[in-house]
Prior knowledge:
globular; mainly alpha; 0% strand
Amino acid sequence: MGTATLDRPSATESPEESLYARVGVLLGLKSVVQSEVDLIERLEKGLGVAAVQSLRTRIGLTDAETFELIAPRRTLSRREASGQLLSRVEADKTVRVARVTARAQQVFGGKPDYAADWLRTAKSELGDRTPMQALLTESGALAVEELLVGIEHGMFA
């Protein structure tokens, strides 16, 4: 499923602005993210551990969630201490969590607390996993995004 389907801006936002801008804010990026291409270019330059810390702070990601969804504690600590960038896989995982969280916030009217609760409540459509647990894989992330699209279009309660 393409991201164009997932980004439904309000009447006051440009077509690609809201989801990507929100992802950039969650990651604490200094440059504005306006498209998937901007994200690709940012990932090619590399993401620092600060992006993970920003995401943790802005969405309330727990230690357990961070170390399961992105990278082990020792790996993140080592990268931070040595000034290393996240690996491409770690950066991809970080962006995955940010993108799905941004999408949930968008669908639930910018209510971060409601979106956070929704992401941490088991869903039968995900095999009784929480959406956050489903983010361990790209397939799981796509399933969560499909659920969010369904909610947005009134298909799910």
